[in-house]
Design brief:
The structure is a homotetramer.
Chain A (H helix, E strand, L loop, with lengths): L2 H13 L5 E5 L1 H14 L3 E5 L15 H22 L2 E6 L6 H9 L4 E3 L7 H13 L5 E6 L7 H11 L5 E5 L11 H19 L5 E6 L2 E6 L12 H10 L2
Parallel strand pairs in A: 1-2, 2-7, 3-5, 3-6, 4-5
Antiparallel strand pairs in A: 7-8
Helix pairs in contact in A: 3-4
Chain lengths: ~250, ~250, ~250, ~250
């Protein structure tokens, strides 16, 4: 970060005979380190490593698939309880700026509602749906909410529901850091293997200051400056599905 | 619960030609229903169904093994994160009056501290241990706490740590209802099969108002009145192990 | 299949008031049923349901992701044993005509060799590699083979190795039907939800005799006649990776 | 094994300053090593480590619980396939001399038949049951067989069934070495922790040439000479359950 720190880091690379770097992270990681790479002319290739899947230049990011599967397993278990006890559960999954984990785990688990930062939350519509469900005796209701949703997290949503429906049992569950651990799924392992191979190939071929990504099943390289967070649009059909679920 | 309710329930059993009942639950379930069984002379056998494993008359209760395995899988995932980021995690598992889930999941995951209702929590000793660990640069610290611990839950414990060590990153995680769902472990399935078989056998043989349990790998029957919650002592060696872990 | 059978099937649809069909399967399913749909003018949309992922008109098929994750979990467990005992394991995964499951599970598990129908198996090269590994004291060797590989299945490969290296312990393991069961992964559930939604939308819009698929994250419809098996090429970088692993 | 080998092993222990040993294995391991321990007067404590659970002096052996859970997960997946296709599956699980894995995984999965070494297999009765099932249109049939069953393994059983019922689809599945790997269950981890703690305690207290085991939830020590394989009887109620399942 500081001039002095960069000098020290470079000396350390020299001392260990390191000629190139592969770094894993998001847009911030790449841009932050890039000052250093440029100043000392160090070959460097980046890999998209974020569970949020919100980077340009790649269809997938390392960790996303595993995180969603972990969330799905947890929500499945919560549904078992919900069905045994007729309850409303609000489950918060990771995603500070992006709703991909919420969107995919919610659709996978047949959530009644999915609240994500990319779509403005209409809390009144949600409350009306609960009222409607109650009238037709359907009291199992799973709401999946991204931690960065504009209305708030699981606690905020469940408080709002309890305020309106004081006789209903509402539980908030924040899945938290379990989403960052566990044995990686095959898709994440294959992705990491392909991108790792692509990074080494790139360094050998003299490519530098680029992120390796997979777009339409082929490797592509994007300059660090052009890797931007949060621009991946949600597919049109998935946007429609959210609306259909919530009606 | 009421005289009228019991009459209605009995009429319903008569209408469906039901001659005996098998009920799954804890001491409260058995005692509550027993008034009804006695009044109407209904043969009934109980199965110990509580994830807390705190019933007399049986070495295991249906659901406990699955719940602990679920907690262990979650804590393993949290440890992955803790190790990547040098953090203190306080994980709350189920157990309002009993610490068996905390004790077993904590030992299974190599938790640095395990806080359970059966042993008075010495929070000062825990804080001193964290200070000691910090001096020797060991900053990964997993604390497993039963929801019914005398000091409080995960939020209380993490608040106390953060108050003392303001520079450390401390995360609280409440596992919650995922512990009540999921595919049952073999041990729970075999237990449920054995006890279900024992219940039917008992009813055929005319036994009634008893809970079927497994003690030392054999089926035993305990009268409902004698099924008591929370009397199973923690094995001496496991008590010692908690102390060794925390030092 | 017969004229009479089709007439009966049509009568049955009429009797139940069924106005359109959604069918899940492979190219054979679609083509076989198409005679019937055309004859009786029945609106029908197909979904790609094969664990082999070898259909044109879609990037993914329902079941593939789950099957590969199941294979990976099994191979991970086998590797635990191999590492404890210094052994060669030949693991056969599904894939009669296509090597996608073998390719992806093999790369995900760091298999030393991957044998697939799409690439001619050079058994001599494999035997030489084992000899080389043995000289440098590396005796853990996992070979993943697709059931439809041109050289043969796991039994054939392990027999060949044992014939050459009579002092080595070689085990063949045929994963078999576990690959067709289990809780589906999030990716398979989301895929099935998206395609199911696309099928219903298509029927409403009057599209018929087409398979709904996902290509580059968007829904596309391919006429049944054009859905062809086994034409998806293996990405260039993955072909190279197989060679690198085996050297 | 040889006089010379033992001398070398002792020198190695001396060189590393090792004063006592903890070994994990079965009765053969303990007895084999005991010659060495006695000759050189080396303190040694054994832990029961066999997935077969057939050692005296302990209610559980390390690895058994995990192995059965792994078998159950696999058989569950096979049942998914069997139910989709109306098939007979013969699944072979580990257990050369003992049927505990087959017995427990079979009951846990609701197997129609369980074949174990401890009970003589009546293959004619099994074939008659299949004929009976076929008459009442029940064609899903899971048979769990221990590898050491007196009639033979999965291949033998499935061949016998196909010989008699040539129109039925019968599949044999040998689970094999997946049963020896994977993340250990909580019960195995706690068992290993308790026994490890007991072994260290024993060495400190001067106990030697004993195996530490858990009997009725308390630690017990059994001299190596008295640790005998294959004497644990199958509980009476589980024997009866096998018969009930198969009728």
């Amino acid at each position: 970060m500081t001039e002095e720190g960069r000098a020290k880091a470079y000396a350390s690379l020299q001392a260990h005979g390191i000629e190139g770097l592969v770094l894993i992270g998001g847009d911030g990681t790449f841009r932050g380190a890039n000052i250093f790479f440029k100043q000392y002319n160090i070959p460097a290739v980046g890999l998209p490593g974020t569970i949020d899947k919100d980077l340009s230049g790649t269809d997938f990011t390392i960790g996303f698939d595993t995180a969603v599967n972990t969330a799905v397993e947890a929500i499945d278990k919560i549904r078992d309880t919900a069905e045994a006890h007729d309850r409303i559960f609000v489950v918060e999954v990771m995603g500070r700026d992006a709703g991909y984990i919420a969107l995919n785990s919610g659709i996978a688990c047949g959530a009644e509602d999915i609240l994500i930062p990319e779509i403005e939350t209409d809390i009144e519509a949600l409350l009306e749906q609960i009222a409607r469900d109650e009238r037709r005796k359907k009291n199992v209701h799973i709401i999946v909410v991204a931690e960065g949703d504009d209305f708030g997290g699981a606690i905020d949503v469940s408080n709002k529901i309890m305020e309106r429906f004081q006789h209903l049992t509402v539980r908030a569950s924040v899945l938290g850091h379990i989403q960052r651990g566990g044995a990686p799924s095959y898709a994440d392992r294959v992705l990491a293997s392909r991108l790792g191979y692509a990074a080494v190939t790139a360094l050998i071929e003299g490519k530098t200051q680029v992120m390796a990504g997979i777009v339409h099943d082929e490797v592509v390289y994007t300059p660090f400056e052009q890797v931007i967070k949060g621009t991946t649009p949600i597919s049109r059909d998935m946007q429609e599905m959210i609306k259909v679920l919530a009606s």
